[in-house]
Amino acid sequence: MCGIVGYIGTQAATEILLSGLEKLEYRGYDSAGIATIWENEVNCIRAKGKLYNLRSKLEQVETPAQIGIGHTRWATHGKPEEYNAHPHMDAAMRIAVVVNGIIENYSELREELKHKGYQFRSDTDVEVIPHLIAEFLKHSPSSVLPLCPSIFLEAVRDTVHKLKGAFAIALICADYPDELIVVRQQAPIVIGFGQGEFFCASDTPAIISHTRAVLPLENREIGRLTPLGVEIYNFAGERLKKQPRLLNLNPMMVEKQGFKHFMLKEIYEQPGVVRACLDAYFHANWNVGDSTNSPIKLGLSTEIYANLEQIQIVACGTSWHAALVGKYLIEQLAEIPTQVHYASEFRYAPSPLTPNTLTIGVTQSGETADTLAALAMEQERRQHKEPKYQARLLGITNRPESTLGHMVPHIINTLAGIEIGVAATKTFIAQLMAFYALALDLAYLRNSISPTRLQEIINGLRQIPGEIEATLEKQEHSIEQLAHEFAETKDFIFVGRGINFPIALEGALKLKEISYIHAEGYPAGEMKHGPIALLDAKVPVVAIAMPGSVYEKVISNAQEAKARDSRLIGVTPINGTQAAEIFDNLIPVSKVDELLSPILTLIPLQLLAYHIAALRGLDVDQPRNLAKSVTVE
Ligand code: AGP
Asked: Helix 598-615 and helix 426-446: axis angle, to 10°?
């Protein structure tokens, strides 16, 4: 959602802030702004809409300021208008503040401040902050107290004690032109260390082209950045000793590298991601005869697995679809009852407590507010219970450095790296790989499948990267051609069964997210219980028909759709006359073990969504209203 960038150093701040914000565009936003300090004044420029609007405004007021903060806002409180855009300032226009997250108690603070005579210029929750700081500064001593490093810092500290909610803040003040203050309370912010210059950002892509030495703040920490260095304090005001670490992120990862869109580049990165997961999760030399070692090396501690009776998974959106595939794998391979919950539902209506239960949170950003809250709730409601009810929390994410990574004791790093396109592609496939590894590890430990079958599945998985490459190579052009026929389509239906039902959901989600075409995914057998009423010649149906336990069923469900005049598109390895009789269009994929087929059937659906959206001339990487990291409830 929103993005924060900050700079203090010896270079002109404005361009560094703007290009940093450009690197955060993928998170989704609807207005932006920058505040710098020059000649004892704060210069604050804001603009509605995309960053080029802000850039053209800034071109008219160039300053050589060497300190500043910038923000991209995704509207929560108040419309996406310039007056609601960050930075927000105090009445005297001395203090500028940018915030990610939500100040939950803003209305009572606003009332308090109004009683004191403060006037508000925006509808946001955030504007209380500069006014509160101004109020504290009004009552501050005129010189620094012995144990207080900075009056500005103290006023910020007093202010954050009054705030409730989850937020990250960056602030500057014209009266303290050598200080940039950053605060973290349950929303991410990192500090970057350069040569005589320092940065802050809500996500690392914003600063990766300047430095790889970063220090992510922990909850309830405050950073004070000056030209001389960085000091870290806790909310109690105690100074903490912290060392930056080196980021394993290459600036090239946040470039398009010749692809028209990040989404297409990330679709093409998938074979590499699957290979990375295979290398990381599976022992290269395991064989059927090896009865003492698991073929899987997830590095999870035994306390996660001991006496396991139940698994519950919380997630949102695409990660929820990965969780559905995970449930299928865990139940069918390891025979452990598994429930999948929308995190946003689970947090208000959790299942009754069950003993020896593993709770898994799946999230590509590692920052999704509902998923984090569901996990926190699970931790809390189990903490005073007897040992078998104690929480066991596992996170599945490609961002182990995220809030999720700090929150849960065990993580499976899905090795997809950072994903820039808002529509999840490579992070989804990596989540699937994590579930294959977890389900197979559990199956091995519980002896629920034979070593031969285990070996067969692993061998099959090893073929998958090549199969994805072949699908990309052979099918992309024809899928692009096919997409031309649907550029004006209004509704789409995707059907699948068994392990491919979640892929039908994912195919529909991808299409609606980026093309704005209405699309629904159904288990093929459910069509005749209602949705079939929607079908006619204008509503194409994409059927995922992979040989295996439900193949015949999917085919007959597809024929029912065809009998209602729907144009039928088959994602299937079945070719020849039979296929030609049933499907109007074929998107062939290789024949693989049914259990592994989701990793392959997914690819054409991603490409179809991508090409339809691209043909419609839409902003594929930053679809309207969506954010990469959904940090509000
Ligand atoms: C995926 O294409 C979507 N942008 C969205 O559904 C996403 O999967 C969802 O918001 C959950 O995000 P997370 O994986 O970061 O928790």
From this structure: 170
- Residue pair 357/379 in contact by the 8 Å Cβ criterion: no
Note if 2 is an active site residue.
yes
Angle between the N-to-C axes of helices 270-281 and 426-446, in degrees from 0 to 180, rounded to the nearest 10: 30
Q: What is the mean pLDDT of the chain?
A: 93
Q: Is the peptide bond before 141 cis (omega within 30 degrees of 0)?
A: no
Index of the ligand 1 atom closest to the CA of residue 513:
2
Evaluate if residue 127 carries a pLDDT over 70: yes
Look at residue 142 in the predicted model and tell me its pLDDT.
Answer: 62
Q: Is residue 633 within 8 Å of residue 344, measured between CB atoms?
A: yes
Residues 6+ apart with CB under 8 A from 237: 147, 148, 154, 157
Residue 389, token pair as written in the block:
């009810």
Residue of 203, 266, 318 to mutate, ligand 1, most atoms within 8 A of C-beta:
318
Indicate if ligand 1 lies below 6 Å from the C-beta of 425.
no
Q: Report the distance separating Cα 264 and Cα 611, nearest Å.
A: 9
| Phi, psi for 551 (deg, rounded to 5) | -55, -55
Q: How far is CA 225 from the centre of its chain?
A: 28
What is the model's pLDDT at position 62?
Answer: 78
Q: What is the pLDDT of residue 149?
A: 75
Instruction: Give φ, ψ of 218 to 5 degrees.
Output: -95, 170
Using CA atoms of 552, 555, 561, 562 in order, give the dihedral in degrees to the nearest 10. -130
For residue 435, the cross-strand partners are: none
Contacting residues for 169 by C-beta, under 8 A, at least 6 apart: 97, 98, 99, 129, 156, 160, 181, 182, 183, 189
> Where do runs of H (alpha helix) occur along 67-127?
106-115
Two structure tokens written together for 105: 């108690």
How many whole angstroms from 538 Cα to the centroid of ligand 1? 29
Angle ∠(494,495,497) on CA atoms, nearest 5: 150
For a ligand 1 pocket test, name from 316, 360, 402, 425 the mutation site with the most ligand atoms within 8 angstroms of its C-beta.
Answer: 316
Q: Could you give the C-alpha distances from 244 to 168, 185, 204, 212, 467, in angstroms and in order?
A: 19, 19, 13, 9, 41
Could you say which DSSP state residue 270 is in?
Answer: H
How many angstroms separate the CA atoms of 542 and 489, rounded? 13
Distances (CA, A) of 537 to 46, 479, 484, 572: 48, 20, 17, 22
Give the tokens for residue 447: 């002896």
User: What tokens appear for 207 in the block?
Assistant: 């600063």
- How does pLDDT run across 76-102, given as a tens digit for each residue? 888 889 999 999 999 999 999 999 998
